[in-house]
Amino acid sequence: MLRAVINFLDELGRIVLMFFQVLYWSFRPPFRFGLFMRSMEFVGVGSLFIIILTGSFTGAVMALQGIYAFGILEMEAMVGGSVALALARELSPVLAALMVTGRVGSSMATEIGTMRVTEQIDAMETLAVNPIQYLIVPRVWATTIMLPALCVIFTFVGMVGCYLVAVVWFQVDYGLFMAYIKSFMGSEDIINGVIKASVFGTGLSVIGCYKGYTADGGARGVGAATTTAVVLASVMIFVLDYLLTAMMF
Amino acid sequence: MFQVADPIIRLMGLDKAFGSQAVLKGVNLDIERGKITTIIGGSGSGKSVLVKHIIGLLKPDAGQILYEGTDMVSLRPRALSEIRRNFGMLFQHSALFDSMDVEQNIAFPLEEHTKKSRREILSIVKEKLSLLELEGIERKTPSELSGGMRKRVALARAIVLNPQVIIYDEPTTGLDPIMTYNVDQMIKGAQEKLKVTSIVISHDMASTFRISDYIAMLYEGRIIEFGPPDAILSSNKEEVQRFLAASSLPPRAIVASGGEV
After folding, report:
1. Pairing of strands B87-90, B165-169
2. DSSP letters spanning chain A
């Protein structure tokens, strides 16, 4: 038991160390703009479809549940405001981060892990190119910047889903629906959600890259690295979400 | 033990342990400039660990690695990175970047370390490809190439910055006899055309005696024999003789034939 705790803390320390290495190598030339843009495309544009899909259904199901609940009090119009608040503060950053972990975090662990076990990372070092700067820095920055954008999109399409269920299907009054959104939500709710998403983005990409970078033992090792990266990043998202919520609201 | 006249690399008293397992126990070895030195030894004897020290991928627990008189062990990462440009390494499984095609692989070191124009880079890539008889495969990805071709592309990438030293990590492992012979020719050819220093890690005795100017035997973390091929053949060390006897080809015959099969 004690051993497991020590190992966990050791691993955590190494992940934090990797984060600082990423920071260190971020501000030294050469700056790899092309790789950064390619990572942005992979993280952002590549995840767009899945974010729209999960976002719209999340908003729709929240609206459905909300209508039933508020219906008891005959206050269905409040559903817009409550869903907007839930999405902006909690659901969008957390769910978008989990989706991106599944798609992007796992692929980072697999790709970098495969490069590690096939000696491609060693080869890069022997060619006098720093692998952290070349492989990890662009990915971490791209995820840190793109996840907030995905989070905003998630909230938006979530509200579209909510609107379709509440206003179009259940005939909630449009004016009241919008009025409650405006009265419930402030800009700080969106800003705090976006900050959360950014922190999650840094965390999940550092974990994905770290697990890949330290993978060993062939195909099985890469598989194990990917699995632990996804599990660890998902747990990290929930833990950080609690801490950030406690600090922000 | 045998002394070389003009060492480019000197390993002095290298120790390395992983956890409680000591892999290198005081390795002393000089690498002669412009020659092919092969390090032989059984599987797990620490050959790859030794070679990773020479190129700075691993740091020893104790000892010095001198390159042209500079101790690489005490260098800061940036200075080490500068020195590394003098080395090219060919990995056992080639280690080509599989997300890039052949041309991008070979161009990679040039794009990273030189300010050459795209046109110049492409012409150098073309020149290296033709040097290794690989014309016309620029657009192929590593997975589309045979094992032998991948080795040659990896060599092209390793030599593109004109290194002083080329390190080959088990270049013939897993290849058929004809391919092995071709890779031997490739190593010798590179040596003659580029006038570089070559360090080869191998446990393939036939290949070793065909190409080497000097042979060093690593056994239980120490260099127990070092010298020209003849000296290795006539070594009175029991471990060396046992290693030679266990290899299925008669090395004496190969040396006598001047390396031809």
Report:
1. parallel
2. -HHHHHHHHHHHHHHHHHHHHHHHHHTSSPP-HHHHHHHHIIIIIHHHHHHHHHHHHHHHHHHHHHHHHHHHTT-GGGHHHHHHHHIIIIIHHHHHHHHHIIIIIHHHHHHHHHHHHTTHHHHHHHTT--HIIIIIHHHHHHHHHHHHHHHHHHHHHHHHHHHIIIIIIS---HHHHHHHHHHH--HHHHHHHHHHHHHHHHHHHHHHHHHHHT--SHHHHHHHHHHHHHHHHHHHHHHHHHHHHHHH-
The whole-angstrom separation of Cα A76 and Cα A78 is 5
Whole-number Å distance between alpha carbons of A92 and A55? 8
> Which residue is it, tokens 């791209």?
A142
Nearest to B109 by CA among B136, B143, B84: B84
B158 CA: distance to closest CA in chain A (Å): 8
Test B81 with A130 for CB contact under 8 angstroms: yes
> CB within 8 A of B102, min separation 6: which ones?
B96, B129, B134, B137, B138, B139, B140, B141, B142, B145, B153
Could you tell me which of B43, B64, B69 has the C-alpha nearest to residue B54?
Answer: B64
Please, which residues 87-126 of chain B have a Cβ atom closer than 8 Å to chain A?
A: 87-89, 91-93, 95-99, 108-109, 112-113
Query: What confidence category does residue B20 fall into, taking pLDDT thresholds of 50, 70 and 90?
Result: confident
- Cβ partners under 8 Å of residue A5, min gap 6: none
How many beta carbons lie within 10 A of that of residue B134, not counting itself? 20
| B11: exposed, middle or buried (Cβ count in 10 Å: 0-12, 13-18, 19+) | buried
Distance from CA of A118 to the nearest CA of B (A): 6
Number of domains in chain A: 1
Phi-psi region of B46 (alpha: psi -120 to 50; beta: other; left: phi over 0): left
Question: Is pLDDT above 90 for A224?
Answer: yes
Tokens of B236: 């009175």
Per the structure, the complete domain to which residue A214 belongs is given by: 2-248
Domain parsing of chain B, residue ranges: 87-162
Dump pLDDT digits (tens) for B182-226: 888 888 888 888 889 999 998 888 889 989 999 999 998 899 999
Question: What is the predicted ipTM?
Answer: 0.81
Query: In chain A, which residues have their Cβ closer than 8 Å to the Cβ of B113?
Result: 128
pLDDT (mean) for B173-190: 83
pTM: 0.86
